[in-house]
Amino acid sequence: xxxxxxxxxxxxxxxxxxxxxxxxxxxxxxxxxxxxxxxxxxxxxxxxxxxxxxxxxxxxxxxxxxxxxxxxxxxxxxxxxxxxxxxxxxxxxxxxx
Length: 97
Description:
Blueprint: H1 8-21, H2 28-41, H3 44-49, H4 55-70, H5 81-96
Helix pairs in contact: 1-2, 1-5, 2-4, 4-5
């Protein structure tokens, strides 16, 4: 069974993602606690393990919730899509390598 863990390196990638949009990212502990809780609530480990969601959907879910919680309505700036894609690739690599 797939186990979803948020190492310091993964949290750093999420902070880098937030930093693309806003100048003052939140505390890494706050980000880690939020996303762990959200993934547990939505039972993402089971959803992925049983094939209900793909690797890309898992990353999209995580980035979407991070965006909504920490970026949306916080005076964010526009970003280059390739920067966001780089974050997605880094997450995929860390989760599934």
